[in-house]
Design brief:
alpha+beta; 20 strands; 425 residues; 6-stranded antiparallel sheet
Length: 425
């Protein structure tokens, strides 16, 4: 029986490979991309803006710009402030207890770091990740300084769409924690989009972290796998894509949501994702922020450097909101990601139809509403069950091409917000 099962699975996976080979290399041909859909802007068209922000709360981006105005802050300072502000606007996914992954480029160097803990209680990997960032760039400031600066400023944050959705979906569970009820309920209803968020004491959160420093068991990982390494292109990812090339997929039992955010300024850039497991909804101390466990599936992250005569092009890809976020990035490379020369082509790839192979039982999920006739025809040749999905995954990108400057690009399938501040003439 085992031999028969292995033969069946092997045949199905061979069919998967056949399908991948049939649909790649067509996306960048412009005559192939004629699906009529309502167009949603996904990146700034400004050339060389002085400051760029990306996240899930547009109002917070405007308030952050006002907060830093007139202050003598360097790029690392702004990263730390923007990362701490995520506690306020995404307290479900960006919390001291959440897993934190980030890519940072500053002073002509690029680093990737991933912070989480094998333990569940009393661990603050998100803060440990920011603490490490401050140390490696020798800011000479402790995190508590940043916390006090934020507490001394009168923010007026509003509930974003993504947080409002989380609160609505978990309103019954929130009732079991009095701190959370007081913070996120107005009368008998949870906060709705654009309603005022409760104030958060960043100083209290940092004081708790400092008091627990000796008990922190944080795993810090900076490992990335080579995927494409040629004379002109070097791609490294936190997932081993050679597994996907052999039809070995890293499929989780459920989706693991995370919060992606970023900041870019001149030749420096930062992009991060944070997430946590929330089995029981409870607050961190007495603060209106959700306590969770950081040992969750990581987002998939790739860094691509492409050498040209005029210099280097750079792309970062972050994938989440999927049972196998790495599959979506792997498919983008099969579609010709390393051949793109501008942000428009990257945006077009992100908008293209996605598919996802799942197991137990083996089946294929595809966004048929974004698919071409040729793709559907190839699907019919597969001997596996095929299902439709309105949308699959969430992939955001950061690009810097020699001919156009840098851009954050969000996914039109999900809500995201970006802002660009023009340089002063």
């Amino acid at each position: 029986m085992k031999i028969i099962l292995i033969l069946v699975i092997s045949t199905l996976l061979s069919s998967c490979s056949y399908f991948i080979n049939k649909i790649d290399s067509t996306v960048l041909e412009k005559d192939r991309f004629k699906i009529e859909r309502p167009y949603t802007p996904t990146y700034c068209y400004n050339e060389n803006p002085s400051l760029q922000l990306v996240g899930t709360n547009r109002d917070a981006q405007l308030q952050f710009q006002n907060f830093i105005k007139g202050k003598k802050l360097d790029f690392i300072d702004k990263i730390v402030f923007w990362s701490l502000i995520q506690f306020q606007i995404r307290p479900d996914l960006s919390s001291p207890t959440a897993r934190l992954q980030y890519v940072v480029r500053h002073q002509k160097e690029i680093f990737y770091f991933d912070f989480f803990s094998e333990k569940a209680d009393g661990q603050y990997p998100y803060l440990a990740g920011l603490d490490y960032l401050v140390q490696i760039y020798k800011r000479g400031k402790a995190l508590i300084w940043y916390a006090k600066e934020l507490d001394n400023y009168k923010f007026d944050f509003k509930t974003g769409r993504s947080l409002a959705q989380f609160l609505e979906e978990n309103k019954e569970a929130i009732k079991k924690d009095q701190t959370l009820v007081k913070a996120f309920y107005r009368g008998n209803e949870v906060l709705k989009e654009d309603e005022r968020l409760p104030a958060l004491s960043f100083t209290n959160l940092l004081s708790n972290y400092n008091n627990e420093l000796k008990n922190q068991k944080i795993v810090s990982n900076a490992s990335l796998f080579d995927f494409i390494k040629t004379k002109n292109v070097h791609t490294i990812c936190n997932y081993d894509f050679t597994l996907y090339e052999n039809s070995i997929f890293l499929i989780d039992k459920k989706q693991n949501p995370s919060n992606i955010f970023g900041l870019a300024e001149e030749d420096s850039s930062f992009m991060a994702t944070s997430g946590q497991k929330l089995e029981v909804l409870k607050s961190v101390g007495d603060e209106p922020i959700f306590q969770g466990a950081s040992k969750v599936r990581s987002s998939a992250v790739c860094v691509v450097e492409k050498t040209r005569k005029s210099g280097k092009d750079l792309m970062w890809l972050f994938s989440n909101a999927s049972r196998d976020p790495g599959q979506h990035l792997y498919h983008l490379f099969r579609y010709g990601l390393t051949k793109v020369n501008n942000s428009q082509d990257v945006d077009r790839l992100l908008r293209h139809s996605r598919h996802l192979f799942l197991s137990d039982p083996v089946r294929l999920i595809i966004e048929s509403n974004r698919s071409h006739d040729q793709q559907i025809e190839n699907l019919l040749k597969l001997n596996i069950p095929i299902y439709n999905s309105e949308k699959l995954g969430n992939v955001w990108a950061y690009t810097q091409f020699q001919n156009e400057g840098s851009h954050f690009i969000i996914d039109d399938r999900n809500f995201g917000a970006f802002s660009c501040q023009n340089s002063t003439p």
